[in-house]
Amino acid sequence: MCETTAGPGDVTASLPKPAPGEAVDPIRLEPVDEVEIVTLVDNVFDALLTGDERTLRPGRGAGMVAAPQFEGGRTPAGMIAEHGFSALVRVRRGDRVTALLFDTGLSPGAMVTNAGRLGIALDDLHGVVLSHGHFDHAGGLAGLAGARGVRSLPMVVHPEVWTRRRIAVPGSPADELPTLSKRALNGEGFEVVERRVPSLLVDGSVLITGEVDRTTGFERGMPPPHQAWTGTGWVHDPTVIDDQALVVHVRGRGLVVLTGCGHAGAVNIVRHARRLTGVERLHALVGGLHLGGPAFEPVIAPTVAALTELAPDLVVPGHCTGWRAQHALAAALPSAWVPGGSGTTHRLTAGAA
């Protein structure tokens, strides 16, 4: 179990280190003894879901709040669910544990509130990783800054995370999305580190993929209404090029891949992680897979087929995966698919030597 936390002196070890070679070259990813992924924010919360030896649920009693209409004046509030994603990742090697925050959810308060209801302190974080710049993954940065105060905290991002974007559906007014401010984040104590290529964190045991190679023929990205500002005009932005994933190698099990939205495509991301690390086995895939809605439903079948061939031990699709893809994955991978949700913890431990 992840019970020992790393000390303040370990922050330096959590800073990104340039991974050797280009993004397509092999990287030595140090195996870990355990990785624990706590979903702090997801689109759903179901207090009736049951867990097992690797999946822990918060249950109906989570988050007691004041409620004067009840005898005793309190009631369980459960976890906040919203259209966003955030996960706390704890990595253990031996007796040393390092905690990283991967994305922060949609609203300023949901992530911090849910962490509090789970009894998780966010003041011992060693770094933040943003999967990409969309606001439903970065909105909780304000709440995190408020909870921690202005203290230095490394944050790993892709250089295009600051891109202005909008949704311009023909016949409707264009809707510009909130854009991250580097100046504001620096002022709040985040030590922003920008990298396009892979980064190794936590003494080489956590990989941030950087830009993902797009190798499949079916994962084509966002539809034409998703646009980016070039400085002179708006253009179709299919790739969301700042999309990146977090990868850990659990000793004796294989790769654990954590995605925010998976804009690069779930299969592209897994292929990229395998190619970078030289580790063929996919142990777990957790996070948003962006297969919801009419523009992405044609991608479901080939994605499910490719993931079925990879035969992961655990698949926890969340956030923007969509209900049709959830059903398809559950049918194709019944022993691996597990429903996620705010407050759920997935604990993955090393295999026998």
UniProtKB/TrEMBL annotation:
Region forming the signal peptide: none
Highest taxon, organism lineage: Bacteria
Chain intervals for the UniProt region annotation (Disordered): 1-24
Segments forming domain Metallo-beta-lactamase: 98-175
Protein name: MBL fold metallo-hydrolase
